Amino acid sequence: MSSPADVAPELLDRLRLVCLRLPEAYEEPAWVGVRWRIRKRTFAHVLTVDADHQAARHRAAPPDQPVAVLILRAPVVEAHALVAGGPPFYRPGWGDDVLGMVLDEDTDWGEVAELLTESYCLLAPRKLTDRVAPVADRAGS
User: Fold this and answer.
1) For a Cys staple, 79 with which of 45, 63, 74, 123, CB 3.0–4.6 Å?
2) What's the pTM?
């Protein structure tokens, strides 16, 4: 059995690269896994789920294999469109603007960066979102 806190270090490193570049964003352990916050609002949460953690996010993956999932926010219309497109996206089951994404070898990390930035911008104060460069601009820095 894996622990929900057992997120692969290479996944955490890739997520940190985006999340910790956002103004005033910080990382902390969550009840399971790791989360990134702006002020006291969580804009991203990553954890590992497996057959023993069905309640954690059973819709994300077949129950016979551990999988890392990223939970974030997106505009309602976009969240619904991504979920309707199927994997790697799924609906965690709470909040119309909450989106789940399975992270695996097929993950599009450019898309992850865009989604993380958008999630942050939905929750951060305007004075901070005004300081966020588009993802394409940050890729070269």
Assistant:
1) 74
2) 0.85
